[in-house]
Amino acid sequence: MASPRTHFALRFAACLALAAISGCGSDAARSAAPTTQAPAPLRLDERANHTTVSAMVGTSLVVTLHNTYWSGLTSGTPDVLTAVGTSRVAPAHTCVPGSGCGTVELTLRAARAGSADITAHRTSCGEARRCTGDEGRYTVTVKVRG
Q: Whole-prediction pTM value?
């Protein structure tokens, strides 16, 4: 007949084995489950002006223009690139009023495959200086793949 100490040791070993098996099983189930992770946001600014970029359906695009004189920041094809909210203007706090320091930002989501232009415009390109040529136009073409 086994001693109480032996019974305790056997029960303890069985509990440890059961915990190890159930722990491994749950890890295996977690790692076997497919993960659908959203693509990283695509960040655009003035350097992307007059270019074409590609994005996958579901991608967020964050457009940040570094001057508060920009207006009308939008997608020309909202069923392809859908705005998430409205554009936000954030004036810089250490700037002389009227100089346009700060940012204009808009977040969009690639909703379906297709092509869309992100556009904005401005008439002032500095204090008391009108924009000339393409200075006052922001256009980025986005090709969205399914």
A: 0.71
